[in-house]
Immunity protein 7
Amino acid sequence: MYEYHGWATIRESASFEEDEDQYDEAIQELQKYIEKLNWPSSVLDLRAVNGDYQLWIAGLDNHKPETKYNPIEVFRKAGEIAPGSYGILYVRDSDDTASSNQFKVYTLIRGEIAEQEDPFLSPFVPKLEDEC
């Protein structure tokens, strides 16, 4: 299984005072990107919350999705379009023999993706699921 859960706050820049026109353009570009993806399953949502846009993504697929539908790539694209964005994405790929027993955490900070170790939900067995 390929399980993922994430959120990101979309920011045009890391400055407290963003350029509203550039922010609107970034949101429109991100909305077009998401619409063009035609997300096949699970959750992919971009919406305004109290005036700021947030991206939500979650799913449980049988196998790691192709690049176009990979949630890590969606986060990467959000950071490219809106380089002040930040958020967290948790991923567990049971088909990845090297790391099937752990979640990987991807941070989106200032528009850049970095992989981190998960201190909370890993190791999956025995922390979340009993051994066979």
